[in-house]
Amino acid sequence: MSHSPFLEIPPEKWLVSNEHAIAIFDGFPVTVGHSLVVTRRLVPTWFDASPAEQVALASDQSATYATI
């Protein structure tokens, strides 16, 4: 798959990151603190993410919650 468009967002705007994932505030939030946690590699579904990417997503989700 091609490059993730989320990686075009400057790293200083990332809430948290790790080797396989990043978290950012949603550009169109539906609630205060609404954020997105995405893999660095473009994958179509959760099930297409590698086990390491799935762990990284969960880790960034927890870290994002603690940040916001």
Summary of the model, kept short:
With 68 residues, this protein is of the alpha+beta class. It has 1 helix and 3 strands.
Mean pLDDT: 93
Structural class: alpha+beta
* Low-pLDDT sequence parts: none
Q: Considering DSSP H and I runs of 4 or more, what fraction of the residues is helical? A: 25-40%
Q: Sheet with the most strands?
A: 3 strands, antiparallel
How far is the first residue's CA from the last residue's CA? Answer: 31 Å
- Strand segment tally: 3
How many helices? The count is 1
Rg from Cα: 11 Å
Strand content: 15-25%
Net shape: globular
Count of folded domains: 1
Physical arrangement of strands within the biggest beta sheet: 1-2-3
Order of helices and strands: EEEH
Describe this structure in words.
With about 70 residues, this protein is an alpha+beta fold. It has one domain (about 5-65). Helix content is about 25%, strand content about 20%. The protein has one helix at about 50-65, and strands spanning about 15, 20-25, 35-40. It has a three-stranded antiparallel β-sheet, covered by helices on one side. The protein is globular.
